[in-house]
Amino acid sequence: MQQPLAIDPEQLRDWLRRVAQQDAKAFRALYDAASPKLFGFALRILGKRELAEEALQDGFVAIWNGAGSYQAHLSAPMTWMMTIVRNKSLDTLRRHGGAAGIDDQPFDAEIMDALHDPRATPIDALLISRDAQALAFCMATLEGLHRQVIGLAFFHDLSHSEVALQMSIPIGTVKTWIRRSLERLKTCLARGDRA
Amino acid sequence: MNIRDNAALCNKLAAEYVLGTLKGGARRRFEQLLREDAGLRRTVEQWQDRLMPMAEFTAAAKPRPHVWKAIERRLNLARSHAGWRFWRSESLAFWRTLSAASLALALLLVGVNYSPLLDRQRIDYFATLTDDKARTALLLTGDSQRQVLTVRLVDQAPVADDKTLQLWAVPRQGVPRSLGILPDQGVIELALPQAALGDDVAMLAVSLEPRGGSPSPDGPTGPILYKGNWVRNM
């Protein structure tokens, strides 16, 4: 059975609005709906279940306390929460000595397949939000290694030189690939491309 | 280095800031600029909208149930009675009005009932606690020097034999602190502890608890019957 696709952003906004009013019930609903994705993300960054749970906990405490400052017209609710959980995950990583095992393949296998060959595995069929689908389409247009560099930097908070070391390529190349890839994603997302 | 006039550089730095590859001193300088520059913040938010959906490229996973329990505990969501969140949602205008009104009323009541006492006491805290129909039920005066809190029951609903009224100091953040058990009628003097004098204590409230007081260390378990602003008379 398919679970419902992405969580409706309007529903998330509504919950966040109520959480800002200290509505504990809305907070629980928000947690039930959003925590699997946020936890999956934290788990990818941190590698260990215990650490990811710690980051998720810190993240939701920050979401409760910060919901009043969330500006619905400026950013998508999932983006806002992902940013919080990412920051908490990176804090957790630093607290525990930053020794998460780095996985060269930063994306889920199913997503990887879709990015690699969207005709064989349609991106539309992935259980991700429309924003994530749009990004996936654009990332599929990047070369595989460039995509990997972006993914490594994003999920493991690596510097240019750490990415270079990890992938055994010169740092100048890493910088160029990242700069070009980011520009390309920006242009592609602005056009609303469908590869 | 002034990067603000260089839109291309701003865009590049914002993108690498969100991606995470902007590090060390460069990252700190960029964060400093972010605090001062709304336009730059907007550029960063746009990059977050572009790149953060990458987070969804990982498989979802279910956290274990204890995570939610820990969140509940840290935010004190579970054990506190739902009604105990009332003070957080009330507007500033309401607070101001209530403050002025309750101070005026408290002064009036003190003037009527306590004028001989006032000469000897230095009353520097007041509260009038009202029920949900805005009827005054209790009058409280605090003398922070003698550390005495005088509670006068003005007019209140009868309390069942197996129940107790308990008085609480309600801080803006965190759990209410017990100030003691109240008698069914008359006047009582309680110790006025430091817990009630902090600047963060905005309100006093009375809850209906099982005989002997709230069984929970984290605050009241029963409904709030009376509440009112805790006003400091400077």
Can you tell me about this structure?
The complex is a heterodimer of chains A (195) and B (234). Chain A is mostly helical. Chain A has two domains: 87 residues, Rna Polymerase Sigma Factor, Chain: A (Orthogonal Bundle), CATH 1.10.1740; 83 residues, Arc Repressor Mutant, subunit A (Orthogonal Bundle), CATH 1.10.10. Chain A is 68% helix and 0% strand. The N terminus of chain A is likely disordered. Chain B is of the alpha+beta class and 234 residues long. Chain B has two domains: 55 residues, no CATH class; 152 residues, Immunoglobulin-like. Chain B contains six helices and nine strands, in the order ααααααβββββββββ. In chain B, the strands form two sheets. Chain B has a five-stranded antiparallel sheet, covered by helices on one side. In chain B, strands 5-4-7-8 form a four-stranded antiparallel sheet. In chain B, strand 2 and strand 3 form a beta hairpin. The longest helix of chain B has 29 residues. Chain B starts with 6 loop residues before the first helix and ends with a strand. About 7% of the residues of chain B have low confidence. Chains A and B meet through helix 2, helix 3, helix 4, helix 6 and helix 7 of A and helix 1, helix 3 and helix 4 of B.
Q: How many β strands of chain A by DSSP?
A: 0
CATH class descriptor of the largest domain in chain A: Mainly Alpha
Fraction of residues in H or I helices of chain B? 25-40%
Structural domain count of chain A? 2
Q: Please provide the ordered H/E string of secondary-structure elements of chain A.
A: HHHHHHHHH
Label the structural class of chain B: alpha+beta
Tell me which CATH architecture of the largest domain in chain B applies here: Sandwich
